[in-house]
Amino acid sequence: MDPTQLERHLVSRLKFKYLRLLVTVGEEQNIFRAAQILNMAQPAATKIIRDIEDILEIKLFDRSSRGVVPTLYGDVLIKHAKLILSQVKHASEELSSLQGGLSGRVTVGTLLAASAILLPKAIAKLKRDCPDISVVIIEGTPDKLMSALKINDIDIVVGRISDINDEEQLVNETLYHDPFSLVTRIGHPALQQPNLTLKALLDYEWILPPKETLLRKEIEDVFHREGLNVPVNATESVSILVNRTLLQETDMISILPNEVIKSYEAIGMLNRLPIDLHCEAGAIGITTRENRELPPVCQSLLKALRQEAQSLGDSL
Predict the structure, then answer these.
(1) Cβ neighbours, 10 Å, residue 19
(2) Among 135, 217, 230, 271, which is least packed by CB within 10 angstroms?
(3) What are phi and psi of 158, to 5 degrees?
(4) How many C-beta atoms lie closer than 10 Å to residue 148's C-beta?
(5) Other C-beta atoms within 10 Å of 166: how many?
(6) pLDDT band at residue 64, thresholds of 50, 70 and 90?
(7) What is the average pLDDT value for the chain, to the nearest integer?
(8) Residue 138: its pLDDT value, please?
(9) 37-57 confidence digits (pLDDT tens)
(10) DSSP assignment of 172-212, as one string?
C-alpha cells in the first residue's frame, strides 16, 4: 500500500477508541484484559484489531497461547497512538484550565540528582500556587525516562542532564551545577582512618548508579584516573530511599550529588567522606521534547523548578 493510500485509511478509519484499544493491548499484551479495562467485549476488541490489520494490510500483533506481542508495525502504530491520545488529553486540560482556573495533571520523570530537594521543593511551591494541579512522579534511569518522554508518557524529566543528539528530538535546560562526593553512614569505620584514600575504600561494599547513567560513567572515570578498578558486585540503584536505608544500616559506601548529601547531613543522617574526587560539577536541569508546546500545568511546574533551582544553585 502506497503512503498516500495508507494515510487516507489511517485518517478515515482509526477512531479514538481504536487508538485506546491498540495502546492498552500493547501495554497488557492480552486482548481479554485490555477489553476489560476499556469495558468492551473481547470478541468486539478482537474484531476491531483484525479489521485494522485487514484495512492496513499489516500484522499488528503476534498471537500465542500466552497472549499477544506487538510486531514492528504494531510498535510504530502504538507509539503514534500514544502521541495522539496525549495531545488530546493536553488539549482537554488546557480548555478546562481556561474555563475554571488552572488544573490538570503533569507527569515528571525524576533522576537521582533531583529527587531529594529540587523536585520536592518545586512541587510544594506548585501546590501552594495551584492546588488543583496533580503531579505524577516516575523514578527511573535516563534511558527509560527519555524513551517515555519521546512518546509523551512523561511531560518533563528533571535531574542530571547529558548531551543529546539532534535526532533525539529533546531539549536540555541547565538550571545549576552540582558536584558529587563519597558518602557513608554516621560513625562509619572509614572515618577513623587517617589520610583516607579511594583505594582504602575498595574493601567495603558499594552502591553505584546503573551502568547506563551519566553519573556512573563519571564515577568510573574517577576510579580509572586513580588506577583502580570499579568495585565489583556493587548494588546498582537510583532510588533515594533504598540508597539512604542501605547506607544507614550497613557499612556500604556510595557517591551522591552534593545537593542530595546536604539534605541528609543537615539532619545528621549521613556523612560526607573527606576525599576530593577531582571531578567537574554535573549539570542539573530539565529535559523536554523539542517543538512540543507544553500545556499551562507543565509551564507552571517549569516555573517552580527554575525558581527553586535559583535558590539551590546559590547555596551550592
Answers:
(1) 19
(2) 217
(3) -125, 135
(4) 18
(5) 7
(6) confident
(7) 84
(8) 92
(9) 888 898 888 888 888 888 888
(10) EEEEEEE-EEEEEETT-GGGGSTT--TGGGGGS-EEE--TT
Single-letter code of the amino acid located at 70: P
User: How is 45-91 classified by DSSP, letter by letter?
Assistant: HHHHHHHHHHHHTS--EEEETTEEEE-HHHHHHHHHHHHHHHHHHHH
Q: Looking at the chain, how many residues does it have?
A: 316
Between CA 55 and CA 62 the distance in angstroms is: 17
pLDDT tier for residue 208 given thresholds of 50, 70 and 90 = very high
Torsion of CA 48, 50, 52, 57, to 10 degrees: -170
pLDDT in tens, 130-140: 888 889 999 88
Q: Which pLDDT band, with edges at 50, 70 and 90, does 3 fall under?
A: low
User: Cα–Cα distance between 38 and 30 in angstroms, integer?
Assistant: 12
- Kindly state the DSSP code that residue 229 receives in the 8-state scheme: P
Q: Which residues contact 288 (CB under 8 A, 6 or more apart)?
A: 149, 155, 156, 157, 170, 171, 173, 294
Residues 6+ apart with CB under 8 A from 223: 198, 229, 230
Residue the block writes with cell 546498582: 236
Looking at residue 242, its amino acid is V
